[in-house]
Amino acid sequence: MKKFRAMILPMLLLGFLSVSCNNDDDSSSGNDDLIVGTWKVSNAWIGEESIYDQLLQTNFCAMQNLYNFMNDNSLEIDTFEEGITPENCVIGVTQTGTWTKTDDVYSVTFDESGETSSSTVTFQNDNTFTTQTIFQGQSVLLEFTRQ
After folding, report:
1. The predicted structure's pLDDT at residue 31
2. Where residue 43 sits, what CATH number does that domain have?
3. Could you give the CA distance from residue 69 to residue 108 in angstroms, rounded to a whole number?
4. Residue-range definition of the domain harbouring residue 121
5. What residues in the chain have per-residue pLDDT under 70?
6. How many domains does one find in the chain?
7. 69: number of Cβ within 10 Å
8. Res 52: pLDDT
9. pLDDT recorded at residue 29
10. Among 41, 82, 114, 135, which one has the highest count of C-beta atoms within 10 angstroms of its own C-beta?
């Protein structure tokens, strides 16, 4: 669990990123992709077992990160870090980059590192999607909910 705790933020940031936009984004770009909006991790499973409560206990602030997909294919990830107490989160470094979509595969490229990560996304409805990632040799299913 300690290894899992230490790696949750990189997993969420590099395994797959979703990024959100404000409601007043300029939609004139014609990008009406369902992913455009603000998203937050709302559940995580290894196999049939939800590990979300464990993640909240060990990484509460990282679980508050907001992933912002913009109409212009840019992204911002509003990160949160532990403050005075684990539940007292403070704003962290904002990650930026771009995103693209081919079929149901979304790819994210980070501005700072130039790294690209791709993942298949399955929408359950307009407000929820899941994506699978491999973390420490285990398959982890992440659920994101529109904020």
Report:
1. 76
2. 2.40.128.280
3. 10
4. 2-146
5. 1-30
6. 1
7. 27
8. 96
9. 53
10. 41
pLDDT at 135: 75
User: What is the C-alpha to C-alpha distance for residues 111 and 124, in angstroms, rounded to an integer?
Assistant: 30
- Rounded Cα–Cα distance for residues 14 and 116 (Å): 8
User: E strands along 8-137, which residues?
Assistant: 37-46, 49-50, 66-69, 74-78, 80-82, 89-91, 95-102, 105-110, 116-125, 128-135
State residue 76's pLDDT score: 98
Half-sphere exposure of 30 (CA within 13 A, CB side): 0
Closest by CA to 70, choosing from 113, 17, 121, 118, is: 17
Alpha helices in 2-137 (DSSP H): 2-10, 52-58
- Give CA 125 to chain center in angstroms: 17
Instruction: Sort residue 9 into left (φ over 0), alpha (ψ -120 to 50) or beta.
Output: alpha
Average pLDDT, the chain: 84
Q: Are 73 and 55 in contact (CB under 8 A)?
A: no
Upper half-sphere CA count for residue 51 (Cβ side, 13 Å): 17
Contact 127, 146 (CB under 8 A): yes
